[in-house]
Design brief:
By secondary structure, the protein is α+β, with helices and mostly antiparallel strands. The protein is built from seven helices and six strands, in the order E-H-H-E-E-E-H-E-H-H-E-H-H. A hairpin with a 2-residue loop joins strand 3 and strand 4.
């Protein structure tokens, strides 16, 4: 028996411009389910989501693609059956940013969020990064001026609770910063990191 192949990303061509408002609401829920854990899907889990989406959207053609370390995968769902595919129309993809309400409607409780964190922070703050971010965010009211420290950084996939994800995203958007920058600043302030 071999380990399941983890996919790096999954994209769905819903045929968005052709969907009626009801179908768009359904597609939005399934999009949220897939995007909540973009890199935590296997071939089997994607096919399960596609089958469920097809049952909820009978009569609609759904196409998907995903990649892993070795290749690109493609599917098409016709009349509820999942087949290998090769066509994909990017104009048919979900065209908006998902909101906390979208994730909640899909039953998602955490969003796997890519955050670039300086190696120096990780050395100074060992432990579960999701817990550290939540603690920093809850205990930092006034965020001081901050410059990203020099040095290497790594991308971490951090499972953030929906409300925390939404608060960080809102702050980052309001300041025209990345979520990584806002999180780095909160960690530095809450844990008094001087680097």
């Amino acid at each position: 028996m071999h380990a399941a192949r983890m996919l790096h990303d999954v994209e769905i061509d819903w045929g968005w411009p052709k969907l009626d408002p009801n179908a768009r609401a359904i597609a939005r829920r399934y999009e949220a389910k897939l995007r909540a854990e973009r890199t935590a899907h296997t071939l089997e889990s994607v096919e399960q989501v596609l089958e469920a989406a097809a049952r909820a959207l009978p009569g609609y053609l759904i196409r998907a693609r995903a990649i892993d370390d070795e290749r690109l995968y493609a599917w098409q769902v016709v009349e509820g059956e999942v087949y290998p595919g090769d066509d994909f129309d990017e104009t048919g993809m979900f065209p908006h940013e998902l909101t906390a309400d979208d994730f909640r409607a899909a039953g998602v409780q955490r969003v796997l969020t890519p955050l670039a964190i300086p190696d120096a922070f990780r050395e100074a703050l060992p432990g579960d990064l999701a817990e550290l971010v939540a603690l920093a965010w809850a205990n930092t009211t006034a965020l001081p001026g901050f410059r990203t420290p020099a040095g290497s950084r790594r991308m971490h996939l951090v499972p953030l609770p929906i409300d925390l994800w939404a608060a960080i995203k809102l702050r980052a958007h309001a300041e025209r910063r990345t979520m990584s920058f806002v999180v780095q600043r909160a960690l530095a302030a809450a844990f008094e990191l001087v680097l």
